[in-house]
Amino acid sequence: MTTTSRLSRRAFTGLGAAGTLAVLAACGRPDEEEAGPAASAEPIAEGPATGSLTLWAMGAEGEALPELLKGFEKENPDVTVEVTPLPWDSAHDKFTSAIAAGTAPDVAQVGSTWMAEFVGLNALEPTPESIALDDFFPGAVDGITVADTAYGVPWYVETRLVYYRKDIAKAAGITEPPTDWEGLVAMAKALQGQPDGKWGIALQPGGAGSWQTVLPLSWSNGGDVVSENGEEFTFETPENEEALAYYQSYFTDGIADPAPAEGTTEQDFVSGAVPMFISGPWMMAAVEGVGGEGFADKYGVFVMPQMETSSSFLGGANLGVFQGSENRDAAWKLVEYLSRPEVQVQWFGIVAAMPGLQSAWEDETVSSNEKFEAFHTQLQTAFAPPTIATWEQVAAKFDAQIEQVCKQDLAPADALKTVQSEAQGIGTGA
């Protein structure tokens, strides 16, 4: 199974991205001589699912999944699914330990940056041809594809938008959101100048996960950090340097706080002290919870401003079935069930997880909220992280250099030179 590469997809406006999920049950690890991704997957047996499955899922998803699975168990009365919730902060280590010990699950929620690593460990089964991927956001399919083979399916997706106080923007004479980089800077300065404004926009000054905001700027500017074939790093380019310099300017020009207090985004947004920030859909409930009744009308969201394109980070969760499962047919039947449009709409109603299937967005439950529609628009040009086995290690090095750029005024060219060297030392895992 193949998908279009990130670089060649830049010319298409109808593409998007989705996240990663999987459900787990105990299974053994294949013999070492069988290591390496399989070229194709066995078909799924016909008939209802039977036997037992253990499903591992992270965070709120793990807590809420039993409710969603009632329909699957009703359709398949001879199957039982045991859900094991995992904390996000320890889930990766639990997975890798289980894979090494030969006790990995049948099917599981897999973090979007873990796919290539797990494939490299020969832990995930390729997606059977009977499971169609053409209705998922193409960017999401790209995120589950390693060496031209798809593993699992995208489940739910998320991307990042610019949140802004509409009432404060109106007072500053701004009635339409900006569409380019220069316009975003101008708007941040204008809102910062309002009576309650302390900073124009909240941005992360480096540290864990800051690459998720910086890398989309590189994509927007026509750059990338990994070659199209996934074998080389490409941090040192004019496009990436320009993107990182643009991000740095918010701190050197005093528009963003280089030392923000942790956990204050919602309060500062509601008070007007910091009337803009970039984040995902979960922040809607967070700011409305702090702002109280009527606050939803005071703020809006808009897609990331563009240089060449309007690009954003694609996250979420994938569903993957693990190699060696003793009940792999039932596991794939569960993946199929969770991939139905109506089930994805039901999941949206339970945990507000944005569907990975494009057809699910046609349901009024999802499409009626104009803010979610803005996220839908951004998904058309959002990209998943690089699907290389070592990305988490490389990303940590990138985060550290971003922090030096934002807090110590390190030249972007020097930062990119350092991370390029460090990344080459780590390798792509290819």
What would you note in describing this structure?
40% of the residues lie in helices and 14% in strands. It has helices at 6-9, 59-68, 70-75, 88-101, 115-120, 138-143, 166-171, 181-192, 211-220, 238-252, 265-271, 282-291, 328-338, 341-351, 364-367, 370-379, 391-407, 412-426; strands spanning 51-58, 79-86, 107-111, 145-146, 149-150, 153-159, 161-165, 276-279, 299-302, 312-321, 354-355, 382-383. The chain is globular and about 65 Å long. The chain has 430 residues and is an alpha/beta fold. It folds into two domains: 6-159 and 314-383, Periplasmic binding protein-like II (D-Maltodextrin-Binding Protein, domain 2); 161-312 and 387-426, Periplasmic binding protein-like II (D-Maltodextrin-Binding Protein, domain 2, 3-Layer(aba) Sandwich).
Which helices and strands appear, and what pairs or packs with what?
Layout lengths: L5 H4 L41 E8 H10 L1 H6 L3 E8 L1 H14 L5 E5 L3 H6 L17 H6 L1 E2 L2 E2 L2 E7 L1 E5 H6 L9 H12 L18 H10 L17 H15 L12 H7 L4 E4 L2 H10 L7 E4 L9 E10 L6 H11 L2 H11 L2 E2 L8 H4 L2 H10 L2 E2 L7 H17 L4 H15 L4
Parallel strand pairs: 1-2, 1-3, 10-12
Antiparallel strand pairs: 3-10, 4-5, 6-10, 6-11, 7-8, 7-9
Helix pairs in contact: 2-14, 9-10, 10-17, 11-12, 17-18
